[in-house]
Design goal:
By secondary structure, this protein is mainly beta. The chain has no helices and nine strands. The chain has a single domain, classed as ApaG domain (Immunoglobulin-like). The strands form two sheets. Strands 4, 5, 6, 8 and 9 form a five-stranded antiparallel beta sheet that branches. Strands 1-2-3-7 form a four-stranded antiparallel beta sheet, with no helix packed on it. β4 and β5 form a beta hairpin. The protein is elongated, with a radius of gyration of 16 Å.
Length: 137
Amino acid sequence: MQNLSGEIAPMSEAVTNGIRVEVLCRYAPENSHPLQREWVFQYTVRITNQSSETVQLISRHWIITDALEHVEEVKGPGVVGEQPVLAPGASYKYSSWCPLPTPTGVMRGTYQMVRTNGDQFDIEIAPFGLRAKQTIH
């Protein structure tokens, strides 16, 4: 989602194979240290199973790009230490954070899911913006 100025909004939504992923991101000034070049962003994700099959989230793959075009990839099992199982119609919500060496950036990625029959598939996490509120003194 881009706003009128061409910046990526701090929220995103995507549906892949009947699985909806919604993300809302905010700058966390209380955890940031701009003088040490560290800006921290908190994001909340809601995953909703709109399909007719039970699925489980088994791993994540994040692609994080800062304002200097430096790309970092984060891969690992589950999310926040969990591998949630989602029955049809169920949702799972969690919050996490991302530190950046610049006050702006973009995150996107995929979750790897598995159906009860063992079929694995990826679902999209659409890009969302990381943007610190700048103050002018």
